[in-house]
Design a protein that fits this description.
Chain lengths: 238, 254, 220
């Protein structure tokens, strides 16, 4: 087993619905994919990792920084964690331009800020949109900007909640390849969650399957998605 | 719990019936603000004697006159002067006013006011920063206050210190709450237990201002006019006039 | 036409609006997103001036600002005279009187800022104060302008509080609404009509502004 420097264990019970989440994951550099149906706790787990949710108990350690430890009473609020988070909806700030959105989290000198912003927009091929407003962008363009914004701060972990929802296959591939180059270069752990089989295929790598708040299975994408493969092939052939 | 509609109807009818019934047995009085300390006791006696219930609205005489001219349903108007009562007469709503009492202007201040010990010279004192008076334009006691100040040659000196209240009761309120150092208020207010315990007063000399002759009119076209007339006669009776004296209103039948 | 009273009315409305916006914004923000148990109680208190008769409010303020109450005594000693019958005292009264008219629309505007934006801003390193200045305020421009216009119009029409607390002092506390009242009491109906028309005109302009802002808000 690879000794990972990042690790997240979350136990939480929602009083209103009685839903319980008990999840523990090693977060290796590169892709960590969580696959499960709606309501299985994927988003809750992500929010616990960012600090937007304070779980009943658990431990979140990223790159030797302890962000949450219920036993020692440690809890860092989201603004004190350097995590990149892209929610299901891009949540771009409508009163700011694309460039201002990307620069939002940066606390650098003006010169460094514009340098880093340009670099990020280049990476995701949205430099030509710099002075546009979010409501002028297409879904795919918005997602690119959201990703650029999330990683502009060089986060210690990137958290993606169904990042390609609503985007077509080609667009997903295009955006993914932009993202992959960054992930490979920075060796940042990426935790991506989704319930979409095709999206999981495209994300590839190691997949952990969860259901009703618990880990059910874990392994390469091909193995985990095998049951679906049969059904899809049968459909395509009929 | 759903209340059956028949019960609702019954309640509605009972409500209307009692209001209609009480209309005829009720006398509605428009009374000047300075009568507020005096009337309740007097009216209680009236109710005991005649069984008629009285409803009173207190306001400055000017406001009441305006309301009457615009159709307010009063039976008797007790003004703080003759002029505003006369307005009702001029509009054809009543016979010429009858004087029912005479008001007295006093200077009142709280026990802890900076102008204590109180005297007429307190009006000249530099310790007097604010003086409450009723509005000289519409309130008879305000007119009297203005006349008295002029009589003492203090118009210019006191002008920046005057706080003008809407009516004489409000002027008393300003003085009583300590928001002004003193007030030129009615003797009726100053004679109450509250004002006696909280401060002291000096009577302003009678010759300093024209008499505050308080006039009353019965609104003769009002359905309750008979009750109003009864009440007016009651107020003019010797016994009641004596009562007035105890509360700061000078009787007319001396 | 009493231009002095017009000046007092406008000055009172402008000063009250500015002060109230500054005071009401943090309050509305806390009511919209705070998590304290006291929220319900505070919300009730801020709504109270809405249902209290203005004369009752004026009476309580008369007592509160006068030397008979503890805070009034402190104020009186500090300033040298009671705040009643002064322009500043009237401002305090107006601020309390119009408080709900600022807090309610601001709170509604702040609550309508999607939580997504605030969450994302937090993950991007913005603390509560920064989230307020960089996300909430810019997104609530229309709500803020609307609240301001509402407070302005409400203050222009103020009467009961001014009557109790003001002392009708020309140049300081004699507002247009008091002028109308006096003119009516003097049976000068022509003058009263003129002054009333002016008040109605000012209020209409303010309401028009509110309406336009609301339409613009709906279009976005």
């Amino acid at each position: 087993m690879i000794e990972s420097r990042s690790y997240a264990a979350v136990s939480h019970r929602f009083a209103s619905s009685n839903f319980e989440l008990h999840l523990a994951l090693d977060l290796i550099p590169g892709w960590n994919v969580l696959f499960g149906p709606s309501g299985s706790g994927k988003t809750t787990f992500l929010r616990a990792a960012t600090g937007l949710l304070r779980p009943d108990s658990g431990l979140v350690r990223v790159d030797d920084e302890v962000w949450f430890d219920s036993e020692r009473g440690i809890f860092l609020p989201p603004e004190r964690r350097n995590s990149g988070y892209v929610a299901q909806r891009p949540a771009l700030f409508p009163h700011l331009t694309v460039e201002e959105n990307v620069a939002f989290g940066l606390r650098l000198t003006p010169a460094d800020t514009s340098h880093r912003t340009a670099e990020m927009m280049d990476l995701f091929h949205c430099s030509h949109l710099a002075s546009r407003r979010p409501d002028e962008l297409s879904g795919g363009e918005q997602q690119r900007v959201a990703l650029a914004r999330a990683i502009a701060r060089r986060p210690k972990i990137l958290l993606l909640d169904e990042p390609f929802r609503g985007l077509d296959f080609e667009l997903r591939d295009a955006i993914l390849s932009d993202l992959e180059s960054w992930v490979a270069a920075s060796r940042t752990p990426v935790l991506a969650v989704s319930h979409d089989v095709v999206e999981i295929c495209q994300l590839g790598a190691q997949v952990t399957r969860i259901a009703a708040g618990r880990v059910v299975d874990s392994g390469p994408a091909a193995t985990i998605l095998a049951p679906y493969r049969e059904r899809i092939l049968r459909r395509l052939e009929s | 719990m759903r209340i059956p509609s028949r019960v609702c109807l019954l309640f509605a009818l009972a409500f209307v019936a009692t209001s209609v019934l009480s209309q005829s047995a009720t006398v509605r009085v428009a009374a000047a603000a300075d009568l507020q300390p005096v009337l309740p006791g007097v009216l209680a006696d009236f109710e005991k004697q005649t069984g008629k219930h009285v409803e009173v609205s207190y306001a400055s005489s000017s406001v009441l006159a305006t309301q009457l001219l615009n159709g307010a349903p009063f039976d008797l108007f007790l003004s703080a002067d003759m002029g505003f009562a006369q307005k009702a007469t001029d509009a054809g709503l009543a016979d010429p006013p009858l004087e029912y009492a005479e008001g007295t202007l006093v200077l009142w201040a709280r026990k802890d006011s900076p102008v204590q010990p109180l005297s007429l010279d307190s009006l000249r004192s530099s310790k007097l920063h604010r003086l409450a008076v009723a509005n000289p334009e519409h309130a008879p006691y305000g007119r009297a206050a203005r006349a008295a100040i002029e009589h003492m040659n203090l118009t210019a000196a006191l002008h920046p210190k005057l706080v003008v209240a809407e009516n004489i009761a409000q002027a008393a309120l300003y003085a009583e709450t300590g928001n002004t150092d003193a007030g030129l208020i009615s003797l009726t207010s100053a004679s109450t237990d509250k004002f006696r315990s909280e401060g002291s007063y000096i009577v302003v000399p009678r010759d300093a201002y024209p008499p505050i002759a308080q006039g009353a009119v019965v609104l003769k076209h009002s359905p309750g006019a008979a009750g109003g007339q009864m009440l007016l006669e009651f107020l003019l009776s010797a016994a009641q006039q004596k009562q007035f004296a105890q509360h700061g209103l000078q009787p007319v039948n001396k | 036409m009493d231009f002095e009273a017009l000046g007092v009315t406008l000055r009172l409305a402008i000063v009250t609006t500015l002060i109230l916006l500054v005071v009401a914004m943090p309050l509305a923000w806390w009511l919209a997103h705070g998590r304290s148990r006291w929220r319900a109680a505070v919300e009730l208190l801020t709504t109270l001036p809405l249902v209290l008769p203005p004369t009752v409010l004026g009476f309580y303020l008369l007592w509160l600002l006068g030397p008979l109450s503890a805070p009034g005594l402190v104020l009186t000693r500090w300033i040298g005279h009671p705040l009643t019958f002064t322009f500043n005292g009237l401002v305090i009264g107006s601020v309390i009187y119009s408080l709900p008219f600022a807090v309610q629309p601001l709170r509604a505007g702040f609550s309508s800022v999607p939580l997504d934006w605030l969450d994302t801003a937090a993950t991007l390193g913005a603390n509560a104060r920064q989230r307020f200045w960089r996300i909430v305020l810019p997104s609530s421009r229309l709500a803020i302008a609307g609240a301001g216009a509402l407070v302005f119009v409400h203050t222009v029409g103020e009467f009961g509080v001014v009557l109790m607390l003001g002392g009708n002092i020309p140049g300081a506390t004699r507002t247009l609404s008091l002028v109308v009242y006096d003119q009516v009491q003097d049976f000068r109906y022509a003058a009263a009509n003129l002054t009333s028309l002016l008040l109605v005109a000012i209020s209409l302009l303010g309401l028009l502004a509110i309406y336009v802002l609301r339409m613009r808000g709906r279009r976005d």
